[in-house]
Request: fold
Amino acid sequence: MTDSFQKTVLPNGVRVISEHIPSVRSVSVGAWISAGSRDETDAESGMCHFIEHMVFKGTEKRRMHHIAQRMENVGGYLNAFTSKEYTCFYARCLDEHLPRALDTIIDLVHTPTFPEKEIEKEKDVVVEEMKMYEDTPDDRVFDHLDLSLYSDNPLGRPIIGTEQSVRAFTRDGLMDFLSRHYSESNIIIAIAGNVNHKKAVKLVEKYFSKPATAPTKGERITLPGYTPTHFTEKRAVQQAHVIVGTRAFDVHDPRRVALSVLNTILGGGMSSRLNQNIRERFGYCYNIYSFNNVHSDVGDFGVYMGTDASKVDHSVKLIFREFDKLLKKSVSKIELDRAKSQAKGSIMLGLESMGSRMMRIGRQELYYQRYFSLDSILTMIEDVKMDEIVEVAEEILDPSRYSVIKILPEAEAN
Reply:
């Protein structure tokens, strides 16, 4: 806890958290819902994302066009996104318009009306969004990886759902999902910028003055075992898209910090090993990077690249060769220090944005129910030791753990 960060839990369970940055004239506000696509049943696949769309179609207080104008009329911004484990509705504006921003986003999550006519129209909109992703192979290849890593668990499904599931949604079904997952104890209001915490709490209390509704959110489905797979899909594309990926550490595992540093060394930026050896030395790709995602009970790690179809097999071998180098020979102290500095710099630069600060404290509350100061995060990175990098590499970089997913041009697939 620092003077800049404060947290208040309202009697009905809504959590209000803020980070006061007096040097700016803006605020970023988010209403976080502890529900994402992994909380859906098979029949509900895509419902979180669909609700994210539908709340903008009308509330008890406002019609659709009023919602669209609400923040733009004062030079602000309003949007939302859905992830595997949470949904966030957020606004950015000048600090003087904080009451308007809070009123708007709380209205969206608290009193949406889901007009029947708009539901049917929005189904068409979401199906078009699905087609857009279908035409974006560097997104689609990650969907295939999720299916490989998490099988028939909801984590393995696309957040957007399927056309069949979305077409079957009803207003009653949407309202039932909302009542189960948008209860007060699942709501966090996060604010970063030039904000007075006490005044913000009073504003939020106006909208959540009624007694809490009983949460009925069920337990998340247990993850199945993982067996690496190799999968190839033919597509009408010019470039091959390749991912090698495996399961990794969850958001609570202390080893996640060392893995994030290892991720920087391997594929985080132009100076990383993958970029220097596969892009710069061989000229095989324009885009290559490693990634590390964390969820509440699992995570994943891997490498993505786009390359010419004729170079796919050799590229995969080169990726695993980089893994082998890290397993057989420890990184130098210079490289480790450089990776730490890069990771810390990226975090600090990101926090110049109030939106990034709001996202940071919102996620911290969702996953940890506590606040990590910037200094504490930087210290965790700086404290990563060489033997921790070695231990994590031995745990994660065994090629036998990896699924290999390829999207190839139709003429090249075999």
In short: The first helix runs from residue 47 to 54.
